[in-house]
Amino acid sequence: NFFWPRFIIIIIFSGDRSASIEEVKFNEVTVYLVERKMGSSRRSFLTSLARSKGFRVEYALSDEVTHVVAEDNQAGALWAWLRGSGLRDVSRLQVLDISWFTDSMREGRPVTVETRHLTECSPPTAAASVSQYACLRRTTTENHNKIFTDVLEELAENSEFNESKGPCLAFRRAASVLKSLPSAVHCLGAIQGLPCLGEHTKAVMEEILIFGRSFKVEEVQSDERYQALKLFTSVFGVGPKTAEKWYRRGLRSLKEILAEPNIQLNRMQRAGFLYYRDISKAVSKAEAKALRSIIEETAHWIAPDSILALTGGFRSHRGKEYGHDVDFLLTMPEMGKEEGLLLRVIDRLRDQGILLYCEHQGSTVDMSKLPSRRFEAMDHFEKCFLILRLEEGQMERDGGLQKDPGESRGWRAVRVDLVATPVDRYAFALLGWTGSRQFERDLRRFARKERGMCLDNHALYDKTKKLFLPATSEEDIFAHLGLEYVEPWQRNA
Ligand code: UTP
Ligand code: MG
């Protein structure tokens, strides 16, 4: 018995200094104090102080943390560290200066975050070198500022519905500049000196930085008219004017439109409704590739030397994984030989039983009327807007046809645009159809304002020399404009 202790003393070493006996009063807030620059003793002191006031303060960074508080830290370095910390979603974190903490201690509760509470940051040195023209920026699909650009693009769309061209373009330009930045914006200081960011845009960004959301866009999203117009224009063949007409008639859903006997849908809209579910589903890269093989084979069967290029978002390296349609450009090496080719391709697709819808437009190219000043206008090349049937069997094994669970019809409908050009217009058409839309807009604006030239999908015209500049490749066009070549995957402006 002598050897058995009377008392067993259990000593618990608590490695987790977050263990706290204080009662937590503010459950929605979990603070993490950054030790860097603050020092460990000040950190301990501030931790005890906050806990005594009912704040939950964690010593370890985890997904529980909501408010990261730092003293004299540069926002850029802080965010870089947070991104590398293995947290699930750093974008939901409030990253704050010590002033938020001291204000909260004084008030005895977590105070509302204001701009002055955001961590200090200086404008990135690169700001001065960001051009107002997308063709002088490099924009990949890696967008570090999606939380802003999604909102700005939605506001642009709303302005478009309201026919407010100025604000629409301003929001689109701002989104485009933010997409080109090499890192995420975490404070308003970081956008100082950047072009195309107006007061409205900055106000929206400030809201997002402080509250993590935009009340302005939420207001737009909950607007009945916006919802209806967005829904109606999502149907192939329905533009903002038709959508507005339907809205004014009191119609709010697609069902109501189909049930309304006085509404006469045109052929395109009928197809749009018929294949709505399929064509509002994104097209994958694998599906685009399968379509390319089908169309290439078809064109080669008719004309073995025909040339087919994938354009739009799927163009070899523009890098998009998904698109709303698949765009192709067709030409022949010899001038004039392209005439009639597109119609024969369409016939052949019909014979194969995969043509679900086709709207063909003949060429109206008239070089005496080019280039057009209205760069939003549709070009004059011969083209067709198609809906094709893509069979599961035509897909690569690894690609797979996208299926809804429980749906195994074995095929899907896909929107395809097919454009045919004479070979001497091919480079211009390729550049124009590769996009993005904002990149094209800025390329044309740059040509006009900076070079006294006129560019569109058909030609480049030098207004001073009064002559058309020939091009056999996109590189030629960039060279005429005195621009460094921008690869397709850098044009996601
Ligand atoms: P899309 O609308 O297909 O865009 O037009 P996208 O980039 O492929 O993206 P998705 O399909 O929505 O995923 C492709 C490009 O063709 C040009 C546009 O400028 C756009 O950049 N285009 C489109 C024209 O030049 N003329 C047209 O009539 C239509
Ligand atoms: Mg496309």
Automatic annotation (TrEMBL):
The record's annotation in PROSITE patterns points to:
BRCT
Give its E.C. classification number: 2.7.7.7
Q: Which UniProt keywords apply?
A: Magnesium, Metal-binding, Nucleotidyltransferase, Nucleus, Terminal addition, Transferase
Cofactor dependence is on: Mg(2+)
> What Gene3D superfamilies does the annotation carry?
5' to 3' exonuclease, C-terminal subdomain, Beta Polymerase, domain 2, BRCT domain, DNA polymerase beta, N-terminal domain-like, DNA polymerase, thumb domain
The answer to whether UniProt assigns keyword Nucleotidyltransferase to this entry is yes
Q: Name one GO molecular function term.
A: DNA binding
Q: Which Pfam families match?
A: BRCT, DNA_pol_B_palm, DNA_pol_B_thumb, DNA_pol_lambd_f, HHH_8
Indicate which residues the UniProt annotation says bind Mg(2+).
325, 327, 417
Q: Which InterPro entries match?
A: BRCT_dom, BRCT_dom_sf, DNA-dir_DNA_pol_X, DNA/RNApol_mu, DNA_pol_B_palm_palm, DNA_pol_lambd_fingers_domain, DNA_pol_lamdba_lyase_dom_sf, DNA_Pol_thumb_sf
Catalysed conversion reaction: DNA(n) + a 2'-deoxyribonucleoside 5'-triphosphate = DNA(n+1) + diphosphate
Q: Does the keyword Transferase apply?
A: yes
Q: Which domain of life is it from?
A: Eukaryota
Top enzyme class, one word, equals transferase
Set out the biological process GO terms recorded for this chain's protein. DNA modification; double-strand break repair via nonhomologous end joining
Domain (BRCT) spans 21-118
Q: Spell out the family assignment given in the record's similarity comment.
A: Belongs to the DNA polymerase type-X family.
Q: What does this protein do?
A: Gap-filling polymerase involved in repair of DNA double-strand breaks by non-homologous end joining (NHEJ).
Record-given protein name: DNA-directed DNA/RNA polymerase mu
Upper lineage is: Eukaryota, Metazoa, Chordata, Craniata, Vertebrata
State which gene encodes it. Answer: DNTT
